[in-house]
Amino acid sequence: MTETLLLNGQPLHTVTTELLRATTYAHFTSMQVRSGHVDGLDLHLERLDRSTREVFGRPLAADRVRSTLRAGLDRTDGDATFRLTIVGGADLLLRIEAPIAPATTPLRLQPVEHQRALPHLKHTGSFDLIYFGRRAQEAGYDDAVFHNATGAISEATIWNICFARGATITFPSAPVLNGIRQQVLQRGLADFEVAPVHLNDLPTYDAAYLTNSIDPALPVAAIGTVSFEPHAESAAVIAAAYASQQAQAI
Predict the structure, then answer these.
(1) Rounded to whole angstroms, how far apart are CA atoms 133 and 145?
(2) Distance CA 30, CA 33 (A)
(3) How far apart, in Å, do the first and last CA atoms of the chain sit?
(4) Could you tell me whether strands 143-147 and 107-113 are parallel, antiparallel, or unpaired per DSSP bridges?
(5) Per UniProt, which keywords does this protein have (predicted)?
(6) 250 pLDDT exceeds 90?
(7) Whole-angstrom Cα distance, residue 215 to residue 30?
């Protein structure tokens, strides 16, 4: 599948300088489409409307988003990667790419003191994410995980992160983007907690997992000098939580 761009449901063959400038102040959502279905589609729609109201001062109708996604779906075999960017508050730019399979190799994360600007928004300001991810790789890690000055962990560069003690799953309470896959996971868990997670606490946890639109539960091999071994109990709890949630048709 070659990359395809749709602007308001219509093929976009030329990107103008005006559109390029507009995308520097924009927000977006990313989703993996399988057989025309998306995990947490209702959550995507709610977040797009809420973010558009905050960023541009206007609502974004769910029907309009669905229409754009369906136009994109017509150009696929039902499986794809969609990135929908809201530009200028009025234009919907949909990038269509091949579907991406979840990663299978646990990651080693470098702790970095940093917080994204306006962390509750999934916005297009991603320079810092790429920068710190690259620096982490140069230091021998796979990626970076962020914490504040007190050592409270928030999120990784393009993932939410959660931790497990036995069957109990803990999500950091520091300011983060409340990712769609994280919300789907929380919907499926019978019980979970949101609490501060500090770097000094890491040895007390059995496991850590990264989650985003591509990777629902990618194990973490290490954070700094603290290593984690495969943990069957928490992995089974997370798998069951996801299995209880049905993907939604576009």
Answers:
(1) 9
(2) 10
(3) 20
(4) parallel
(5) Aminotransferase, Lyase, Transferase
(6) yes
(7) 12
Question: 4-97 has which fold?
Answer: D-amino Acid Aminotransferase; Chain A, domain 1 (3.30.470)
Residue type, 233: E
Quick: pLDDT tens for 85-135: 999 999 999 999 999 999 999 999 999 999 999 999 999 999 999 999 999
**Residues 150, 161 contacting (CB under 8 angstroms):** no
CB atoms within 10 A of CB 147: 22
What integer is the mean pLDDT of 175-191?
97
- Residue 76 token pair: 């696929």
Closest CA to 11 of 86, 68, 52: 68
- The CATH code of the domain at 107-248 is 3.20.10.10
**In whole angstroms, how far apart are CA 6 and each of 10, 45, 116, 195, 248?**
5, 18, 29, 41, 22
**Sign, CA torsion 92/27/179/61:** negative
